[in-house]
Amino acid sequence: MSVPSEVYLKIGARLPAPALGAKPRCAQLPTHADVVVVGAGVIGLSIAWRAALAGLTVVVVDRGEAGAGTTFSATGMLAATAEHESGGAALMPFALESQALWPAFCAELEIESGVNLDFRRSGILLVALSRDELDRLRARHTFLTNSGLDCAWISGADLRALEPGLRPSACAGIYCPNDHQVDPRALVTALLSALTLRGVTLIENCGEVGIERMNNTIEGVRLSDAFCRAPRVVMATGAWTAMSDLLPAGASVPVRPVKGQALALRARDQRQALARIVWTEQIHLAPKRDGRLIVGATMEETGFDASVTAGGVYALLEGARRALPCIEEMEIEAIWTGFRPTSDDDAPILGDVDGSGLVIATGHHRNGILLAPATADAIVELLAHGEMPPKARGLTLKRFKRED
Q1: Fold classified for 5-75+185-254+345-400
Q2: What is the pLDDT of residues 375-397, one digit of tens each?
Q3: For the chain: N or C, fewer Cβ within 10 A?
Q4: Domain 121-178+256-343 has what CATH class?
Q5: Nearest Cα to 362, choosing from 52, 64, 36, 70?
Q6: What are the domain boundaries of the chain?
């Protein structure tokens, strides 16, 4: 997704810069590659990096700027526990595996790229701000515990000791010690640097992308007048997957955009800062190393409407003020919208599409950053050996096919 810059310019005090740093670029499409990845968000870039590490020759193409879509709009939470909901049992093993992969994934990427990802192992707090919310939080704690997830009940006094800035009425919390966060913009910068070192070709603003097939076998990818012969194509096109011309005739991928409005605040006094991510029933608050406090995010079924609305901004600010009163003194730095790529069951869709060499990696909903390492490993395993690892095999497109 390309986030309209005019939204930032009209509303934010400063335009948040896209990921900077060295980008792998090529003036023209190479004539040959082992795999072409369509989509340069965190999923596509992670797959490309891992594929290059596996010795494959990789090209990445995107109709926009690398990382400037859903990834740039993300908070960067690695919240396998906090995000777990009823009906998510099929996703949970994959999510926990990816969460366990993150420390090594981060360390390797930081060493290779020289970029600090701001990987914070401070956990996430789920907070009840009133007695009305307390019973629901207790029920959630029971659900998470019964699901076998690591979490701890925190009293109001202990909660306020951990985060003194919280409203005094905050009466209890759930601490999720294994849920962490990274900075998505730093992640994109690091991946781009690593791709440069690995000789991956990146072509941004590439215009229309076409796949050429012969007898139900992919021959390669065409951009304008250039053609790259490649036997495999990975679609990491996020919320736009269902609309893509790359899908074969008759293929349907149940992915839709779920709009989220979010904003960034900046504290004038570091004593106002949170030490860890805080979730309430209304919003989440994610502190970043550079002093930003990300407030997110609405959940809106409005298609690709990228408008920032008064109602959305009010809900974010009111929810943030209700949890952290000192936000009244903070500067509003930016407000934006993004589109979560959401499948019909909120879990990713991975794997082969039609046996032609076309592979998809989409539908990650709110968990693209969390699931990037496991997704990349699963897709590279498929490319290299013809089959995904066991924990990914239940996440294919086949699960949506109705049996007659």
Answers
A1: FAD/NAD(P)-binding domain (3.50.50)
A2: 999 999 999 999 999 999 999 99
A3: C
A4: alpha beta
A5: 70
A6: 5-75+185-254+345-400, 121-178+256-343
